[in-house]
Amino acid sequence: MKDVYINKVSIFLPNRPISNDEMEEKLGTINGKTSKGRRIVLRNNQIKTRYYAIDDDGNITHNNAQLTKEAVVALCDQDFKTEDIELLSCGTSSPDQILPSHAAMVHGFLQNGNLEINSPSGACVSGMNALKYGYMSVKSGETKNAVCTGSERTSSWMMSDTFEEEVKHLETLEENPILAFNKDFLRWMLSDGAGAVLLESEPKGKQPLKIEWMEGYSYAHEVEACMYAGGDKLEDGFLKPWSEYPSDQWSKKSLFAMKQDVKLLSENILVKGVDSLKKAIEKHNLKPEDIDYYLPHVSSYYFKDTLYKEMEVQGVKIPWENWFMNLSKVGNVGAGSIYIMLEELVHSGKLKKGDNILLSVPESARFAYAYALLTVC
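Above: the chain's sequence. Below: its structure in token form.
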């Protein structure tokens, strides 16, 4: 088996940062009314700016595959060209269409010759699954390099015409902010963007990162679907797919809008997350104090303190000073968030040889979690 190194990290964030006050102008109002839940959700998620693939005239500037293509191109230079890519592995929860696959569409925009492609489906963990496929390919010697990506273009999903009505029960939201995690909540959280990494079997560049291990855990055998799109959740928890509804019901039931079962989210996301974290670090004999930088993908800063408390309860507390996050600046880019966090850390000048970086990515779709340990070379 080969060692695997992240030799380059790049990102692409479209257009300019959008402030909280500009969001509703960009996405539109629902039924002509300003959202009652917006300020509550923003106060709790603490996101200050985010990016949309929408220009100041309201025109869409990039689809998901185009965002991803730009991040891949940003990896390349005279020493490594797009034509040198042997494997392209692209994860997203918001592909531009059902078929062809996301990676196929990115490859089509790259126009860089014949190569292998991989398109893991899912939500936020799809970006980590894209990374793991590339990691295993290079590690096994199947390919000499792999470019792996995570991306989202959800702004078009969040436009006002996608929603039938705004969040109700404002008084309840004030008492328990987690109840805002539904269609309206997602509007004030999600962001567009893409990140990419170059994996190779030899360390190159200024500060390559060795991938020590990657782990993934699913709790779908224990918990029903929580966040979903393309279906309707029945009273017994069964997720009925859009294809089993007549076409005139697709819009009436908002079958293609993202939704969340907020009760399931609050009961499971942190408990299962820390349980899986504990499994991963114990499997590899890693102690919390061995982690120099902890990069947790969270959808909202609302979860930060409660995540820390759950770590204390389960005996895997990672000190605050070792956490690294940029959610407030870039928003929640789903499958791309972990790449965008890593890129900022790599270019921060903070890293030194021997530092351990733990990547931690949850997804609430049906509660899956992915981890990777990196060492600075």
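The chain is about 30% helix and 20% strand.
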